[in-house]
Amino acid sequence: MNTPREDGFYMPAEWAPHDGCWMIWPERTDNWRLGAKPAQAAFAAVASAIAQFEPVTMMVSARQWHAARTMLPARVRVVEVSSNDAWARDVGTSFVVNQAGELRGVDWPFNAWGGLQNGLYFPWDMDDAVAAKMLQIERAPRYRAPKIIEGGAIHVDGEGTVLVTEACLLAADRNPGITRPEMERVLKDYLGAAHVVWLGAGVPHDETGGHVDNLACFVRPGEVLLSWCDDPADPHYHVSREAETRLQAAHDANGRKLKVQHIPMPKAMFFQAEEAAGIDQTAYGMNRRAGERLAASYVNFYIANGAIIAPEFGVETDVEAKRVLAALFPDRAIIMIPGREILLGGGNIHCITQQQPKALNS
Amino acid sequence: MNTPREDGFYMPAEWAPHDGCWMIWPERTDNWRLGAKPAQAAFAAVASAIAQFEPVTMMVSARQWHAARTMLPARVRVVEVSSNDAWARDVGTSFVVNQAGELRGVDWPFNAWGGLQNGLYFPWDMDDAVAAKMLQIERAPRYRAPKIIEGGAIHVDGEGTVLVTEACLLAADRNPGITRPEMERVLKDYLGAAHVVWLGAGVPHDETGGHVDNLACFVRPGEVLLSWCDDPADPHYHVSREAETRLQAAHDANGRKLKVQHIPMPKAMFFQAEEAAGIDQTAYGMNRRAGERLAASYVNFYIANGAIIAPEFGVETDVEAKRVLAALFPDRAIIMIPGREILLGGGNIHCITQQQPKALNS
Q: What is the value of pTM for the model shown?
């Protein structure tokens, strides 16, 4: 089979028009506290917010289907798709389109962010089937990629540029021995791209090993928003400075220099004892403990048709974060949704969403 | 909520153009012998045949999804929908449309053909959710009906007439105490119909209690095909004669007398010891035994766009059955598929299929 690039398909930017958004219903009790009920309420709030702007499909196991159907607004489509956890960004298909507006999808192999070595749980077989199931529902052809990549490990500008971190894309626990040129080839072939911008580390304490979607994102061609830390005592101080240095030295696929915008990192937040106590301990699970630092970031937002759906954390920087987003996206509503319950599971709003770009027959 | 009739929706005849066909993948080992593998091959043959004429969607549990995806042609859409068994006709939605071509669906409550009294298995909760899940995938509104009815218990001519049997529609193990006028009201309201033609008993040994779709069907407005038995020693002899008498006395919604056509019943067939031995015995299952008679009928066929997909049984009457169908459907290909493995599970091709009528935006 050809690659998407050979067939003329590419991944559009997240700000391009969508036909909808896909999410997965959280339920595993060794990641989500109190039987996942608080997380389900948080996911439902995100789905409800996005559904005001574009169609939302929630993928739910047979066990939780009725519960989800009841907790979600009628306009949200609820389909039965099983999974090992609830990260539609990472396990869902990365949709691609061609100039004629046809829809296809890339199915990245998935190993729970590090396989048997560093993966967050075992097994991950149902997660790895989610992309194929999404594409079956949409009757869209599927490209199975040759290397392990999560959707949260890539950002694109829709004009040929891919933004990634070395921490994830060159990780030995994903694709042992892979070289930078080999990975660039995969990214270009499967995202229909021409140029890769490499950052180094991701946000400290990020369980994915450092997904770019928790650190930085394109807000338009030639412009990147970076989670920024001004406290030299915080490990993210150095990470954000290194990222800025690299971004300022980089160019995009069109040869443009990149404009770098900052959004504050929220103050350090930690797993509370009460929160950790509500999570099942298991042999192959996350086994979270009180006092662990949470990898909070405002960059982890979703761009919907006409809106930005971003996390807030009940801290002082929420106001500034919303102001930054409003300035960067003047034509979109800025909707802040409480993100702590999602953060407790290891990610945020961008991690739990996956856009479906607008296609011809839609 | 209104009824479909109040909203201007009705169930089209099966011969009206389809957008596709829905099926469910068989897997329960207390109904399908040898781990359901022979039944899966038979269902795959039916799906492959129909897929030559219209899109087919196969609903499959998470457990069997990959197996089904591998055994089915690429053009068959495979979606994850769990169920208790594999009867898309009975547990699937009965799709309805309006004059503008909008699509909706009726979700009949389901109790496994007789509930705790005479039902074929327990529980049936996942079966009862299949219709809602189909409608979610299609983004089509759902009407939950007020009475227990299976899709195989009704046939419509698309012009206001419903064909049913008293054996099922007035059964105390479905809707205790329901009267004929009450049931006629439900049928008219939910199928957008104006007149009900009542037959009495169904085919003997039919485990459903006597579904009309194993006994007789409309082949066009004003014309009914009846499974016919000429052997006075066979219990179906009297059933088929009683049905003919009733049909000849009946009229349709447009006041037409009904023309009655015959198709031979195949010779008596029975569960073989080897076949029964391959089926799990369980506390709440079917517990089939060697020597049980099978309710074989050629009437149990599916009308696809441009084709009739009908069962054959490897017996002498197969030739005559195909001739009858060819004469009645001169504009359609007649595709005969080995039906014994489906019959062993308690039904045939019509029972395992559910048409989706052509809608406006398709």
A: 0.95
